[in-house]
Amino acid sequence: MEMKKYIDFPEKITNGFETIQFLNRLLDDKEKDMYYKLGNITFFEASMVPFFHSLNMQLFQTHEKIFYNKINKEIEVFFLRNKYASKFNSKYMNIKLEDIYKTYIEFVEIKKDDESGFYIIEKNIKDKKLMDFNDELQNFFISLVGELTNNSHEHGETEKAYFCGQYYPKISKLSFAISNLGKTINEKVKTKRPNLSNKKCLDWIFQEGTTTRKDGTNGGQGLYELKNVVKKLKGNITVISGYDYYRIEKNGKIDYNRLENKYKGTTFIIDIFYNRGGL
Fold it and tell me: How far is it, in rounded angstroms, from Cα 263 to Cα 265?
Protein backbone atom coordinates (compact mmCIF):
# COMPACT_ATOMS: atom_id res chain seq x y z
CA MET A 1 0.00 0.00 0.00
CA GLU A 2 1.35 3.39 -1.06
CA MET A 3 1.79 5.92 1.69
CA LYS A 4 1.56 9.45 0.29
CA LYS A 5 0.78 12.83 1.76
CA TYR A 6 -0.26 15.81 -0.37
CA ILE A 7 0.25 19.24 1.19
CA ASP A 8 -1.20 22.46 -0.21
CA PHE A 9 1.11 25.42 0.36
CA PRO A 10 -0.33 28.91 1.00
CA GLU A 11 -0.15 31.72 -1.53
CA LYS A 12 2.59 33.61 0.32
CA ILE A 13 5.60 32.15 2.14
CA THR A 14 6.78 34.98 4.38
CA ASN A 15 8.93 35.02 7.51
CA GLY A 16 6.09 35.71 9.92
CA PHE A 17 4.95 33.32 12.65
CA GLU A 18 1.89 31.99 10.79
CA THR A 19 3.98 30.71 7.86
CA ILE A 20 6.70 29.36 10.14
CA GLN A 21 4.10 27.41 12.11
CA PHE A 22 2.66 26.06 8.83
CA LEU A 23 6.08 24.81 7.73
CA ASN A 24 6.76 23.42 11.19
CA ARG A 25 3.59 21.31 10.85
CA LEU A 26 5.24 19.45 7.97
CA LEU A 27 7.07 17.60 10.74
CA ASP A 28 3.70 16.09 11.79
CA ASP A 29 3.66 13.89 8.73
CA LYS A 30 4.32 10.18 9.13
CA GLU A 31 3.90 9.03 5.52
CA LYS A 32 6.88 7.75 3.53
CA ASP A 33 6.43 10.11 0.60
CA MET A 34 5.44 13.77 0.75
CA TYR A 35 4.07 15.80 -2.16
CA TYR A 36 4.37 19.56 -1.89
CA LYS A 37 1.65 21.23 -3.98
CA LEU A 38 3.32 24.55 -4.75
CA GLY A 39 1.13 25.81 -7.57
CA ASN A 40 -0.66 28.39 -5.42
CA ILE A 41 2.53 30.14 -4.27
CA THR A 42 2.95 33.62 -5.73
CA PHE A 43 5.63 34.87 -3.31
CA PHE A 44 8.39 33.00 -1.48
CA GLU A 45 10.47 35.20 0.81
CA ALA A 46 14.14 34.42 0.27
CA SER A 47 14.95 34.43 3.99
CA MET A 48 12.64 31.42 4.37
CA VAL A 49 14.70 29.25 2.04
CA PRO A 50 17.37 28.21 4.63
CA PHE A 51 14.66 27.29 7.18
CA PHE A 52 12.67 25.43 4.51
CA HIS A 53 15.80 23.54 3.45
CA SER A 54 16.71 22.62 7.04
CA LEU A 55 13.19 21.32 7.66
CA ASN A 56 13.44 19.16 4.54
CA MET A 57 16.79 17.79 5.68
CA GLN A 58 15.14 16.90 9.01
CA LEU A 59 12.24 15.24 7.17
CA PHE A 60 14.64 13.16 5.09
CA GLN A 61 15.74 11.50 8.33
CA THR A 62 12.30 9.81 8.49
CA HIS A 63 10.89 10.07 4.94
CA GLU A 64 11.97 8.42 1.72
CA LYS A 65 11.03 11.11 -0.81
CA ILE A 66 9.74 14.66 -1.07
CA PHE A 67 8.20 15.75 -4.36
CA TYR A 68 7.74 19.35 -5.53
CA ASN A 69 4.55 19.51 -7.61
CA LYS A 70 3.37 22.20 -10.04
CA ILE A 71 5.70 25.07 -9.24
CA ASN A 72 4.47 28.16 -11.03
CA LYS A 73 6.86 29.89 -13.43
CA GLU A 74 7.51 32.93 -11.24
CA ILE A 75 8.57 30.81 -8.26
CA GLU A 76 10.62 28.52 -10.48
CA VAL A 77 12.54 31.58 -11.75
CA PHE A 78 13.03 32.72 -8.14
CA PHE A 79 14.56 29.35 -7.18
CA LEU A 80 16.77 29.39 -10.27
CA ARG A 81 18.07 32.91 -9.64
CA ASN A 82 18.98 32.19 -6.02
CA LYS A 83 20.53 28.83 -6.97
CA TYR A 84 18.22 26.76 -4.77
CA ALA A 85 16.38 24.93 -7.57
CA SER A 86 19.10 22.32 -8.05
CA LYS A 87 18.73 21.27 -4.41
CA PHE A 88 15.34 19.68 -5.07
CA ASN A 89 15.57 18.69 -8.74
CA SER A 90 18.71 17.74 -10.68
CA LYS A 91 17.11 18.91 -13.94
CA TYR A 92 17.94 22.47 -12.81
CA MET A 93 21.62 21.65 -12.24
CA ASN A 94 22.92 23.26 -15.44
CA ILE A 95 20.31 26.00 -15.79
CA LYS A 96 21.50 29.45 -14.80
CA LEU A 97 19.54 32.71 -14.75
CA GLU A 98 21.24 36.06 -14.39
CA ASP A 99 20.55 38.18 -11.33
CA ILE A 100 19.92 41.24 -13.50
CA TYR A 101 19.32 43.77 -10.73
CA LYS A 102 21.79 42.15 -8.31
CA THR A 103 19.25 41.72 -5.54
CA TYR A 104 19.67 38.00 -4.80
CA ILE A 105 21.82 36.47 -2.06
CA GLU A 106 22.42 33.03 -3.51
CA PHE A 107 21.62 29.91 -1.51
CA VAL A 108 24.89 28.44 -0.28
CA GLU A 109 25.91 25.60 1.99
CA ILE A 110 28.81 26.63 4.23
CA LYS A 111 30.75 23.76 5.72
CA LYS A 112 32.63 23.72 9.00
CA ASP A 113 36.25 24.91 8.74
CA ASP A 114 35.53 26.29 5.28
CA GLU A 115 37.63 29.45 5.30
CA SER A 116 35.73 30.73 2.29
CA GLY A 117 32.50 30.91 4.31
CA PHE A 118 33.00 34.54 5.33
CA TYR A 119 34.03 35.51 1.81
CA ILE A 120 30.92 33.84 0.37
CA ILE A 121 28.83 36.09 2.60
CA GLU A 122 30.91 39.14 1.76
CA LYS A 123 30.72 38.43 -1.98
CA ASN A 124 26.94 38.08 -1.88
CA ILE A 125 26.36 41.23 0.14
CA LYS A 126 29.25 43.57 -0.65
CA ASP A 127 30.16 42.78 -4.25
CA LYS A 128 26.54 43.16 -5.31
CA LYS A 129 26.38 46.47 -3.46
CA LEU A 130 23.32 45.31 -1.55
CA MET A 131 24.15 47.78 1.22
CA ASP A 132 24.39 51.47 0.53
CA PHE A 133 25.72 52.77 3.84
CA ASN A 134 29.20 53.66 5.08
CA ASP A 135 32.00 51.09 4.73
CA GLU A 136 32.69 50.88 8.47
CA LEU A 137 29.11 49.94 9.35
CA GLN A 138 28.85 47.67 6.33
CA ASN A 139 32.03 45.76 7.22
CA PHE A 140 30.98 45.48 10.86
CA PHE A 141 27.57 44.14 9.88
CA ILE A 142 29.07 41.57 7.48
CA SER A 143 31.49 40.38 10.19
CA LEU A 144 28.58 39.87 12.59
CA VAL A 145 26.70 37.86 9.96
CA GLY A 146 29.85 35.79 9.47
CA GLU A 147 29.90 35.13 13.20
CA LEU A 148 26.35 33.74 12.97
CA THR A 149 27.71 31.14 10.56
CA ASN A 150 30.55 30.32 12.96
CA ASN A 151 27.98 29.97 15.76
CA SER A 152 26.17 27.33 13.70
CA HIS A 153 29.32 25.24 13.63
CA GLU A 154 30.69 26.00 17.11
CA HIS A 155 27.57 26.20 19.27
CA GLY A 156 25.23 24.17 17.07
CA GLU A 157 27.93 21.49 16.80
CA THR A 158 27.02 20.85 13.19
CA GLU A 159 29.00 20.49 9.98
CA LYS A 160 26.86 22.69 7.71
CA ALA A 161 25.07 26.03 7.69
CA TYR A 162 22.74 27.38 5.00
CA PHE A 163 22.57 30.99 3.83
CA CYS A 164 20.19 32.83 1.49
CA GLY A 165 18.38 36.17 1.11
CA GLN A 166 17.24 39.01 -1.10
CA TYR A 167 16.93 42.78 -1.31
CA TYR A 168 13.43 44.06 -2.13
CA PRO A 169 13.76 47.55 -3.66
CA LYS A 170 10.02 48.29 -3.67
CA ILE A 171 9.90 48.13 0.12
CA SER A 172 13.59 49.00 0.76
CA LYS A 173 14.17 45.77 2.68
CA LEU A 174 17.08 43.32 2.89
CA SER A 175 16.00 39.96 4.31
CA PHE A 176 18.31 36.98 4.77
CA ALA A 177 18.77 33.96 7.00
CA ILE A 178 21.36 31.51 8.30
CA SER A 179 20.15 28.07 9.28
CA ASN A 180 21.53 24.79 10.59
CA LEU A 181 20.54 21.39 11.89
CA GLY A 182 22.39 21.03 15.16
CA LYS A 183 22.02 21.63 18.88
CA THR A 184 19.13 23.98 19.61
CA ILE A 185 19.68 27.19 21.55
CA ASN A 186 17.86 25.89 24.62
CA GLU A 187 19.87 22.67 24.60
CA LYS A 188 23.09 24.70 24.66
CA VAL A 189 22.06 27.45 27.08
CA LYS A 190 20.63 25.03 29.64
CA THR A 191 24.04 23.39 30.01
CA LYS A 192 25.05 26.72 31.60
CA ARG A 193 21.71 28.01 32.91
CA PRO A 194 19.53 24.91 33.56
CA ASN A 195 16.82 26.82 35.43
CA LEU A 196 16.01 29.28 32.67
CA SER A 197 12.72 28.96 30.79
CA ASN A 198 12.84 28.56 27.01
CA LYS A 199 12.05 32.24 26.46
CA LYS A 200 14.61 33.34 29.05
CA CYS A 201 17.25 31.26 27.25
CA LEU A 202 16.60 33.30 24.12
CA ASP A 203 16.66 36.55 26.09
CA TRP A 204 19.99 35.46 27.57
CA ILE A 205 21.84 34.88 24.27
CA PHE A 206 21.31 38.53 23.28
CA GLN A 207 22.77 39.89 26.52
CA GLU A 208 26.29 41.29 26.59
CA GLY A 209 29.04 38.89 27.68
CA THR A 210 27.07 35.62 27.68
CA THR A 211 28.53 32.45 26.17
CA THR A 212 27.93 28.69 26.11
CA ARG A 213 31.58 27.90 25.41
CA LYS A 214 32.80 25.03 27.55
CA ASP A 215 36.13 26.69 28.34
CA GLY A 216 34.40 29.82 29.62
CA THR A 217 36.30 32.14 27.27
CA ASN A 218 34.78 35.52 26.55
CA GLY A 219 31.81 35.61 24.22
CA GLY A 220 28.39 37.07 23.79
CA GLN A 221 29.49 40.13 21.82
CA GLY A 222 28.27 38.83 18.45
CA LEU A 223 24.53 38.56 19.11
CA TYR A 224 24.53 41.54 21.46
CA GLU A 225 26.20 43.73 18.85
CA LEU A 226 24.05 42.28 16.06
CA LYS A 227 20.91 43.24 17.99
CA ASN A 228 22.21 46.80 18.38
CA VAL A 229 23.20 47.18 14.72
CA VAL A 230 19.88 45.76 13.48
CA LYS A 231 18.05 48.16 15.80
CA LYS A 232 20.10 51.04 14.40
CA LEU A 233 19.06 49.96 10.90
CA LYS A 234 15.39 49.81 12.00
CA GLY A 235 15.20 46.08 11.48
CA ASN A 236 14.15 42.94 13.31
CA ILE A 237 15.64 39.57 14.21
CA THR A 238 13.73 36.29 14.20
CA VAL A 239 15.05 33.12 15.84
CA ILE A 240 13.55 29.68 15.24
CA SER A 241 15.05 26.92 17.37
CA GLY A 242 13.61 23.70 18.78
CA TYR A 243 10.04 24.47 19.85
CA ASP A 244 10.64 28.22 20.02
CA TYR A 245 9.83 31.22 17.84
CA TYR A 246 11.39 34.45 19.10
CA ARG A 247 11.31 37.82 17.35
CA ILE A 248 12.87 41.13 18.34
CA GLU A 249 10.83 43.85 16.65
CA LYS A 250 12.41 47.12 15.49
CA ASN A 251 10.84 48.90 18.48
CA GLY A 252 12.51 46.41 20.85
CA LYS A 253 9.32 44.48 21.59
CA ILE A 254 9.74 40.70 21.99
CA ASP A 255 7.28 38.33 20.33
CA TYR A 256 7.56 34.76 21.64
CA ASN A 257 5.52 31.76 20.51
CA ARG A 258 5.65 28.01 20.85
CA LEU A 259 5.96 25.75 17.79
CA GLU A 260 3.98 22.52 17.57
CA ASN A 261 6.89 20.25 16.62
CA LYS A 262 10.56 20.20 17.49
CA TYR A 263 12.71 21.74 14.79
CA LYS A 264 16.08 20.08 15.31
CA GLY A 265 18.14 23.13 14.53
CA THR A 266 18.32 26.92 14.61
CA THR A 267 17.53 29.64 12.08
CA PHE A 268 18.34 33.34 12.40
CA ILE A 269 16.38 35.65 10.09
CA ILE A 270 17.50 39.28 9.74
CA ASP A 271 15.39 42.05 8.19
CA ILE A 272 16.82 45.54 7.78
CA PHE A 273 15.33 48.54 5.99
CA TYR A 274 17.17 51.14 3.92
CA ASN A 275 17.10 52.71 0.47
CA ARG A 276 19.71 51.31 -1.88
CA GLY A 277 20.91 53.72 -4.55
CA GLY A 278 20.76 52.94 -8.25
CA LEU A 279 17.49 51.00 -8.25
Answer: 6
Question: Using an 8 Å Cβ cutoff, are 273 and 235 in contact?
Answer: yes
Element housing 225 (H / E) = helix 221-232
Task: State how far the Cα of 23 lies from the Cα of 55, in Å rounded to an integer.
Answer: 8
pLDDT of 133 reads 66
CB 150 within 8 A of CB 157: no
Split at pLDDT 50, 70, 90, the class of 214 is low
pLDDT at 220: 47
C-alpha dist (Å) from residue 207 to 148, 219, 221, 247: 15, 10, 8, 15
Q: Given its phi and psi angles, is residue 45 left (phi above 0), alpha (psi -120 to 50 degrees) or beta? A: beta
Tens of pLDDT, residues 12-28: 999 999 999 999 999 99
Whole-angstrom distance, CA of residue 230 vs CA of residue 13 = 23
Q: Find all residues with CB under 8 Å of 91, minimum gap 6, and list them.
A: none
